[in-house]
């Protein structure tokens, strides 16, 4: 018996209705919809749900129906007619004594707490420093704000620099090294070139101040 049910039985008149289980005669119960059931009480729970057998159901029109078993829900019960042979005070005292001897049955309220894990400092999908650095596939983002290393690239400083396919970005702001190039300043090296200054380089070879588009000579 749960503690809540035991408390309801001890503090309400449910204990009196439960004493009707031992009564040999039949008990009449009236409902809020002006129907009634007369039968033998076989069980009563803490919420005054009454189970009866060998019942006679009476409709508001006076029509009666014989029912073998019937469950009376406590929230629809209006009256329970106590038979004359039952002493209410003695029945309540006997029932309270039985409830006092019943061992309490409850459930534990303890709740375990799982441990929290913290990511390591190196390798994998972890950002070592800075605000919002992202390393998607094994890259290392160590500093700066918002740097991204997508496929194994190394991003170490600057803000919003991008190394997409293994490129190395070490300085400047906003520089991009897309396919394995080495970018150290603030411009763009697109196809594997080495850029050290502030202009644009599109193919293989080295640029130090002007534009060389097709490896130093056009033809």
UniProtKB/TrEMBL annotation:
Annotated stretches, region: Disordered? 100-219
Q: Which residues form the Sm domain?
A: 15-82
Q: Where is the composition biased (Gly residues)?
A: 120-150
Q: What are the recorded GO MF terms, alphabetically?
A: histone pre-mRNA DCP binding; U7 snRNA binding
Which Gene3D superfamilies does this one have?
2.30.30.100
For bias type Basic residues, the affected ranges are: 106-119
* SUPFAM superfamilies (UniProt xref): Sm-like ribonucleoproteins (SSF50182)
GO process terms (BP): mRNA 3'-end processing by stem-loop binding and cleavage
Q: Which residues form a coiled coil?
A: none
Renumbered to this chain, the Low complexity biased-composition regions fall at 151-165, 198-212
- List cellular component terms (GO): cytoplasmic U snRNP body; nuclear body
Query: What is the name of this protein?
Result: U7 snRNA-associated Sm-like protein LSm10
